[in-house]
Amino acid sequence: MGIQDDAAEIRASGWRTLAALHGLIDSALEKALQAEHRLSVVEYTVLEALSRQDGWHMRMQQLARAAALSSSATTRLVSRLEERGLLGRYLCADDRRGIYTELTTQGRELLRAARPLHDATLEATLTGAADVPELAPLVRALHDLEPAPASPAGS
Amino acid sequence: MGIQDDAAEIRASGWRTLAALHGLIDSALEKALQAEHRLSVVEYTVLEALSRQDGWHMRMQQLARAAALSSSATTRLVSRLEERGLLGRYLCADDRRGIYTELTTQGRELLRAARPLHDATLEATLTGAADVPELAPLVRALHDLEPAPASPAGS
DNA sequence: GAGAACTATTTGCACAAGCAGATATGCCGC
DNA sequence: GCGGCATATCTGCTTGTGCAAATAGTTCTC
Question: Which InterPro entries match (chains A, B) (predicted)?
């Protein structure tokens, strides 16, 4: 049993570290993006995900997966961004249940403006985390990951 | 500039992977713990953090850091758990602003009951994630972390 | 081609989170 | 010991989230 307990404790400890680093980065990005561009992290993520799509459009459901959100949250998120003129909705021609969401010029503009802050905040937070003994190994590991393909969350 | 852009993109990609894995684990744990023990992940985290303290008690503020929560959220979280008899509050003798929270017998009992499910869910989710190409490298990296000391979030 | 089963999106509702402000306590200099 | 400032906790309010149910459209079967 000792061996199994150890394995479980290693996983639990890894999970705590992952959660801690995630929380750190998430709240740093949240504050920065909110303050400068009135964007939440999820909202930024959505804009960014859309910008990486050919044609800048995506279906609600894809978006939900990419943002790790429920479909109801996605509906409201898209509505918020639509009201701000950052993206638009239009019906799928082929499957009329589906709704495409498309980045507007204004949305692309805002993303272009926000990306530097996002990237800088991310870098600063990771650098800071590298000085925390418990987080440092994970930060190094992250850095050594092979750049992942387009969409780790979507599938 | 190309080199800097690449570095930023590597960090962004690592962050997306981290967030995706975090979301996966978090929602799996949330569903499992909620269904079987009526506990959210944060609640479990708090009970677990308390159980790793000598004397099973901790101040609100420490707790807030350990759970990566605001102090107001911590107040309400502790209230919820207190109402269920899982922990108790008592004043610090030395600093009367401070309030200690202490795991009750019932709280330790529930934690003991929930831990196996938590650990099993974590293992299952990690195993599942190891089959997703984008997540696999991070899962491996997590596994290879040296077991972190007591509290990665608290400091 | 009518009905059943499935999928995509939206809405009603309850809840947990953060921020700002309130209150109580500790600590410091004078 | 008294004002001034910092710290610890709690409360009011607003907002974003998930679940479950409602609605609309597709696909499959006969």
Answer: HTH_MarR-typ, MarR/SlyA-like, WH-like_DNA-bd_sf, WH_DNA-bd_sf
